[in-house]
Design a protein that fits this description.
The protein is an alpha/beta fold and 394 residues long. The protein is built from eleven helices and 14 strands. The structure holds guanosine-5'-triphosphate and magnesium ion (MG).
């Protein structure tokens, strides 16, 4: 699972990334602070099943606090994108190629109105056009990728009478394009798949747009909610983009809380609406934490960063979390209880899960046992979120 953080310069991508990963990255109040991409591990948060079994788990990856399990996902923070990037403005859009294999994007939008379209400091800026700008630039990026090979590709399809959807999915599998996506796009857009060689530039752009839309679904992280103008700007965004998932957040507040927790100043579980002060605070720390409490947590119920990650994985991508678990014992051979948790597409079956564990498990699958009910299920059993299963093999 790879999720890309995209947005205009200075919207807070690196701050969001650092809050989610605690990796050491540059955060700065000038545009194009990030040049090389930052790759790191963040987490989605689920109710661990260890509570139901009256045990405490020992995750091999991620961690668990108070029966809240944090399951790792990969995050990528890239440079800022500006209007005209496809023509080389700013840092261009070549750097997006690091994101071709991303499953989804989180678009960070600075809703404070304090940075302009290029990320420079300003006042009373209306962020409404930022989303449109970014989507256009992403479309132009996809168009560029398609155009590089389209002529030869389209001619070959036409000459060999190859299946259009299959060929496109194969050619662009690196972008996570699958056959069904292509069929969907073709059906909706009425594209002539017999003669792709004759498509106009406008048609190819429309195709790029639809394909990008499907293969890089996106949530909006409406960032900097700790600033005064943010609330009204979010309402406007929601009105203008009713079809988008818009989640308020303050990356800066989340980063401050996670760092304070790391330094043992507070107890804080990401995504919660409160924290507990542990040690002696100096006046500055006290003020900063008070401000986070009153301006962010009390108003929005959390900093929103964890919610953005969870909604991306579970609501937008519709993934589910599955635990490998022995029907009779929850520990692995080393005595670790429920060490693993897998994120799988929502449509997955028991057999898909077996293959996710190991191809041998898939090849030799007999049945799966539900660790809760001890009932056996077959290969076509449709997995449910937080299922705990043992795979029985030949
Ligand atoms: N008030 C407030 N400021 C924030 C928040 N998130 C980020 N910032 C500030 O916004 C500025 C830009 O943050 P970065 O994380 O470097 O932004 P970026 O999107 O990575 O910028 P580029 O790498 O230049 O594209 C910094 O001064 C941050 O401290 C937030 O939630 N609230
Ligand atoms: Mg950055």
């Amino acid at each position: 699972m790879l999720i890309g953080l995209v947005g205009k310069p200075s919207c807070g991508k690196s701050t969001f990334f650092k809050a989610a990963t605690l990796a050491d990255v540059l955060i700065a109040n000038y545009p194009f602070a990030t040049i090389k991409p930052n790759h790191g591990i963040g987490h989605v948060k689920i109710d661990c099943i260890d509570k139901e079994f009256n045990v405490n788990c020992n995750p091999s990856k991620g961690y668990c606090v108070n029966h809240k399990r944090f399951v790792p996902i990969e995050l990528l923070d890239v440079a800022g994108l500006v209007e005209g990037a496809s023509n080389g403005k700013g840092l261009g859009n070549q750097f997006l190629d690091d994101l071709t294999s991303a499953d989804a994007f989180i678009q960070i939008v600075d809703v404070s109105g304090e940075t302009d379209s290029e990320g420079k400091e300003t006042k009373d800026y209306n962020p409404i056009s930022d989303i449109q700008m970014l989507e256009n630039e992403l479309d132009m990026w996809y168009l560029g990728i398609l155009k590089k090979v389209w002529k030869t590709f389209a001619r070959t399809i036409q000459n060999t009478k190859a299946d259009f959807a299959k060929s496109v999915a194969k050619q662009f599998s690196g972008l996570k394009v699958i056959e069904d996506d292509v069929k969907d796009v073709v059906r909706k857009g009425n594209f002539n798949t017999e003669k792709p060689n004759e498509w106009s530039d406008e048609q190819l752009l429309r195709f790029a747009h639809e394909l990008r839309h499907l293969t890089k679904p996106m949530v909006i992280a409406a960032n900097k909610i700790d600033k005064p103008a943010s609330k009204a700007n979010i309402e406007n965004l929601k009105q203008d983009y009713p079809e988008l998932m818009i989640i308020p957040c303050s990356a800066e507040a989340e980063l401050a809380l996670r760092e304070a927790a790391k330094h043992d100043i507070i107890n804080y579980i990401p995504g919660e609406d409160n924290f507990e002060i542990k040690g002696e605070l100096n006046e500055k720390q006290k003020l900063a934490l008070d401000k986070i409490k009153t301006d962010v947590l009390d108003v929005y119920g959390s900093t929103g960063v964890q919610e953005v990650l969870n909604k991306t994985v579970f609501d937008l991508l519709k993934y589910i979390a599955i635990f490998p678990a022995g029907a009779n014992k929850l520990a692995d051979s080393k005595g670790n209880i429920l060490p693993d948790c897998f994120l799988l597409p929502g449509e997955s079956t028991a057999l898909d899960f077996a293959y996710a564990l190991h191809s041998d498990f898939g090849d030799n699958f007999i049945k799966a046992i539900d660790a809760r009910t001890k009932q056996a299920v077959g290969k076509d059993y449709k997995l449910k979120n937080r299922d705990a299963l043992e795979i029985m093999t030949r």
